């Protein structure tokens, strides 16, 4: 299982990085070529925007008027900000190290996970009591539901969106697919990506491609989100979808990427405690009513209360 998961993660990442490098080089080369020939431009809809439209025109005029000076200024800026490359390298190296530790830990979880969970369950039962079983079951169910409902849904949406970008002729489809996957982890965030690409295609005069991508997004990409996510999460956990939605956004704000999964789990535990407290309160009221009813029968055994 560890080797399989490593291949499932590693192979797409390596292929994606290679393709992304090719697309980035192509994009940069095209940008430099346009600057050199003095033909850097943006859609007219952007230049016609109020307030910033005139500023965009002025910047384009200065760049196209002196392309060599623009490239030299860009080289100087890159040289003066090389430490950003070091920061990016440190982030990549740290992420790879965390991934390696996660895979190593995963091996031991697969091998000894059942025994470990049994010991943790017994230790918590010694502290809290038997009701800890319900909490642990709620945590496990919610975690699986969130991983399937958010992670797999985001992967499915990104894959479908990537197909749409490719056939619509959008630039750098792999890069857009990766961005779509990241944004799709946030509920209702995907339309901002494929919608923006569709608007860009329309602004470039690709009317059929832009409308086609918009229809693909509404009828296929969003359909996957609206169908799978609520059914998997709310159906499996019996938790209202709004709770999951708040948990995802709150966890993302408080804990970063990991908070996508921590937030819903915390709210699931809180909801389990709330439901248990409500149930106990109802049972206490019902027991009090039974006591009062038995007392009334003992006082007046002939007249039975309605």
Summarize the structure.
By secondary structure, this protein is mostly helical. Helix content is 86%, strand content 0%.
Q: What's the layout of helices and strands?
A:
Layout lengths: L1 H35 L7 H4 L5 H13 L1 H14 L2 H46 L3 H37 L4 H12 L5 H14 L3 H31 L3 H15 L3 H41 L7
Helix pairs in contact: 6-7, 6-8, 6-9, 6-11, 7-8, 8-9, 10-11
What does this structure look like?
- The structure is a single chain.
- The protein is mainly α and 306 residues long.
- It has a domain at 1-104.
- Helices cover 86% and strands 0% of the residues.
- It has 11 helices and no strands.
- The longest helix has 46 residues, at 83-128.
- The mean pLDDT is 77.
Total helices: the number is 11
Q: Indicate the low-confidence ranges by residue numbers.
A: none
SS elements, strand count: 0
Helix content: over 70%
Q: How far do the termini sit from each other?
A: 64 Å
Secondary-structure-based class equals mainly alpha
Shape: elongated
Strand content: under 5%
User: What is the residue-mean pLDDT, rounded to a whole number?
Assistant: 77
* Sheet with most strands: none
Q: Report the radius of gyration as a whole number of Å.
A: 28 Å
Essential attributes:
306 residues; mainly alpha; elongated
């Amino acid at each position: 299982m560890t080797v399989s998961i490593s291949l499932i993660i590693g192979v797409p990442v390596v292929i994606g990085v290679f393709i992304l490098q090719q697309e980035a080089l192509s994009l940069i080369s095209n940008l430099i070529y346009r600057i050199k020939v003095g033909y850097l431009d943006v859609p007219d809809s952007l230049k016609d925007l109020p307030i910033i439209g005139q500023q965009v025109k002025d910047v384009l005029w200065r760049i196209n008027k002196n392309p060599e000076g623009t490239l030299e200024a860009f080289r100087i800026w890159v040289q003066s900000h090389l430490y950003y490359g070091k920061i990016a390298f440190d982030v990549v190296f740290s992420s790879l190290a965390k991934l390696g530790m996660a895979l190593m830990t995963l091996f031991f979880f697969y091998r000894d996970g059942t025994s470990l969970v049994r010991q943790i369950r017994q230790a918590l039962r010694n502290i809290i009591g038997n009701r800890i079983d319900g909490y642990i079951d709620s945590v496990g169910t919610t975690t699986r539901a969130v991983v399937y409902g958010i992670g797999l849904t985001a992967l499915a949406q990104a894959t479908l969106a990537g197909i749409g970008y490719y056939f619509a002729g959008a630039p750098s489809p792999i890069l857009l697919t990766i961005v779509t996957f990241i944004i799709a982890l946030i509920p209702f965030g995907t339309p901002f990506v494929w919608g923006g690409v569709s608007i860009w295609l329309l602004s470039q005069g690709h009317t059929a491609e832009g409308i086609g991508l918009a229809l693909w997004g509404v009828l296929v990409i969003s359909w996957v989100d609206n169908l799978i996510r609520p059914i998997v999460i709310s159906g499996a956990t019996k938790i209202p979808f709004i709770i999951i939605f708040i948990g995802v956004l709150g966890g993302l704000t408080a804990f970063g990427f990991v908070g996508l999964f921590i937030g819903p789990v915390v709210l699931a535990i809180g909801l389990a405690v709330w439901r248990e407290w409500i149930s106990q309160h109802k049972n206490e009221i019902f027991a009090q009513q039974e006591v009062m009813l038995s007392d009334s029968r003992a006082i007046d055994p002939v007249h039975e209360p309605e």
